[in-house]
Amino acid sequence: MTKKKNNHIEEAHQILISLGLPRAQHNERSALPLLALLNLTPEKKWAKAENPLVGITPIMDWSRKYYGKEYAPNTRETFRRQTMHQFVDAGIAIYNPDKPDRPVNSPKAVYQIAPAALTLLRSFGAKTWRDNLKTYLSQNKTLAAKYAMDRKQNRISVQIAPGKKMTLSPGEHSKLIRAIVEDFGPRFAPGSVLVYAGDTGDKWGYFDAALLTKLGVDVDAHGKMPDVVLHFVKKNWLLLIESVTSHGPVDGKRHAELTKLFAGSKAGLVYVTAFPNRANMSRYLGEIAWETEVWVADAPSHLIHFNGERFLGPYTT
What we know:
The protein is α+β, with helices and mostly antiparallel strands. The chain has 11 helices and 11 strands. It has helices spanning 3-18, 28-37, 56-67, 76-89, 115-121, 129-139, 143-153, 172-188, 209-214, 252-261, 278-282; strands at residues 93-95, 111-113, 156-161, 164-168, 193-199, 202-207, 228-232, 237-243, 268-275, 293-296, 303-305. The radius of gyration is 27 Å and the shape is elongated.
C-alpha cells in the first residue's frame, strides 16, 4: 500500500476520533467506509470530497479497488452493524436519503455523507479545520457522549436504604441484583446493610470498604467479590450472594474462593446463590455446593436449603 493510501486511512481514523465516535469505530474497518462515503481516492484532496450514494457491498468493493483492502463477503453485516449504524446515529451519514421509506435490510439500501459533515470534512487539513470542528461539535453532540447519556438514562435504580439509592448498568444481571437488595434482603435478613454490589459496567458498583474492614475483611482490587454482600446486623452474618444470569452458582470451587477471601471476617459467612427463575436454576442444580442457600426471584418468599445442619446460617470450618 502506498504512503498516500496509508495517509488517508490514518487521517480518516483521526477524524473519527475527533468526531467523538466510540472506541469500537476507531479502526480501519470504519475509516475506509468514511473515505468511500466521500469517494476520497488516494490521490484526491479532502477539499475535493464528494457525496455519492453508496451501499455496503459497493463500499467493500471500493475499499478493495482503491486501497487494496480485501473483505470477505460475510463481513457485510459487520460493516452495517458496527460502522454504518454508528455513522447514521452520529449524524455523519444519512440512510436511504433517496428513498427514506425503503424497507429495512433492502439490498438496495444506500448511505450518503450528511451535508454538514461533508462541509466540515472538506476543510480537513486546512487552517480552518479546528475552528470548523469546534463549531460542528457545538452543534452536533458526539456519539460517544450520546451513548454515555443513553446508558445513564437506562441505568437501573436500586433502593439500598430509606432515602438512599444507587444505580447499576442496564441488563438482566443488574435486575437480579436489584431484586436481591430490595426483596431478598428485607425478607430473609431484615435490617441488613448493603456492603457491596457489583456492576457489569463498573466492578465496584457500590462498596462500603470501611464497613467491610470493620468486620475484619480487607479486599484489594484483585479480589473476586461475590455479586452482593449484605451484613445481617441482628445476627452479625455476612451474606455472600452470587447473582446467576449467565455465570455459575456458588459451587465447590467458588465456595472455597469466598471462604479464603473472607477468612478474616468477624461475622459468620452465609453463601447464597440467586437465580431469576427456576428454569435458570435447573441448569445448575448439579453444581450448587452443599451447605449453601438458593433464592429464586420469581418465587421470592421461598428459600432452598442445600442440606447441612442448619437453615440459613453460617457454618464453622
